[in-house]
Amino acid sequence: MAREQPMAGTAAMPAIGTPAVGDARRAWLLKQFREKVVPRVALILVCALFILPFYWMVVTALKTREELVMYPPTLWPSELAWSNFREAVEYIPFFRYLFNTSAITFLTIVGSVISNPIIAYGFSRIEWPGRDKVFYVVLATVFIPFPVLIVALFDIFANTPRPVFNGLEVSWEGNWINTYMPLVAPMFFGNAFWIFLMRQFMMQIPFEISDAARIDGASEFRIFSQIVLPQALPAIGVISIFAGLHAWNDFLGPLIFLQNETMYTLAVGLTFFQSQHQLQYSLLMAASTLVVLPVIALFLLFQRTFVEGISLGSLK
Amino acid sequence: MSTTAPPIRPGPFGRLHLTRSERRNLRLGLLFISPWIVGFLAFLVYPIVYTLRISFTEYTGFGEPEWIGLGNYQALLQDDLFWISLYNTLYYTALAAPLGVVVAMGLALSMNQPLREVPLYRAILYLPSVIPLFTLSFIFLILMNPTQGIFNQFLMAIGLPNINWFGDPAWTKLAFVFLAQFGAGQVALIFLAGLKGIPVTLYEAAMLDGAGVWSRFRNITLPMMTPIILYDLILGLSLGLQVFTQAYVITRGGPADASRFYVLYLYDNAFRYGKMGYASAMAWILFVITFVLAMLIFRWSQRWVHYENQ
User: Fold this and answer.
1) Cβ-Cβ contacts under 8 Å, B143 against chain A
2) Do A95 and A38 lie in a common domain?
3) What confidence tens digit (pLDDT) does each residue in B124-145 have?
4) Domains held by chain A: number
């Protein structure tokens, strides 16, 4: 990297030999230092710091029990204890929790992908009196802390019967606690962040195509589903990734609404390792690695989508 | 949009007489946003009102809530742990939120330089903010452990003492502030998008006038970024006041209540001690505190936020 710098800068570098060159060259060096060296050193240091947790997670996950308690800690396991991974998934009902987490994640994605585009359409492609005022209310809800609601939500869900399907017959019994419903059902009613993101995207789709379809007598729902929705596919991709991450990463929700061990998600299930002796640290890290791995894979695969989503969602 | 609306100034509630097409659009618009309206009422407005009602009662979660008026609020004023948790949370937020802005801005400014490998930095910096916070917390529990962590080995290598971050009350909150900075990558990307949106002509004009680096940052970059800074500051405030997962996973409120944050105490009251009414009173107070602080920042921001269309 450093070798390329003079090359890249040759065009801007003043010729040597003329009297003013000393100053010009110093100024050029100063500029290079400011624009290339300082930011690089800062970024490399911070990046090293940001990689450190991942490194330590993997290293700890691969240490044997004996090596784990050594002081000072070894920087790399002398013997790779791959068996920690097997032990970790057997120590807790890992696959049961993985199933619960995956089911909630899947249903969250479905709910978000259905609801947010419809709602965002109403906030972007139709002009109705009062629309922007109502949209401010949507934006304001972002700042309401979720923990403010947890007591009430728990009590409401604990006293709401859930529909039980028995063939064609529906009966209402029990309540919502220890089911996926408290975590999944709200996702079918939109989320302020994703409504905003989708609205931003839909505003950029030319309005002429909607107008043309309207003149041809297409219903509003048809314009939505057959014209705007296909154009909004990239934004739907962004939302499904963010929604999936949100469900996979959620901690407080599952902690409150899922109290039966068989219904736990990975988030809550992993706390089991902690209640044990500290020797379980390597198992905890092995299980954490398994939880983090799909996220990292998803991120590396869809990095562009992530970055676009962030800049799409940023306020200008 | 190119629709030519009649130049009638709408009152606070809009014009009451709507044309036929406006009525049609209103009907359609409300139809499309109806899922949000239902969700807003069912999962937000109703729970907030419900919380207020429960906060005036003694309620274990079973049986009937018993009305005790302002009893819970009076008890809270006498509760030392309530004040400790409020202090801890405000302390944490006052450090974590502004520091988050500074760190994110520094990273964004660095990534805005003409470096070829910026995509790599971007990926690395963003990664900790996409992985689950609970796993990051588990990792930090070990990473910053004085005997099994590598972090303190580095500190000691440069001559700093071996600090028991999550075991020494003097350091615990600072350790959580430090942990929060690992989420800065995401904000940095938003900042970076903002930096890229600043017209180059502004800088060129300033350079012609002989403005230096600092002067350009102070007079162009910073003012242009103030709307994003405000947004991030208010979001950081809201997130800081609801800090929970890290403390639940790493310290459960210890040592010596140094990390007993507000929501942690609220959670314990509701779901461990079965004091739903008491927890509801706490929830309402948190709601009011968040609202008041956000409003104060917003009012204060009118002095320094620069809007392009002004």
Assistant:
1) 52-53, 56
2) no
3) 999 999 999 999 999 999 999 9
4) 2
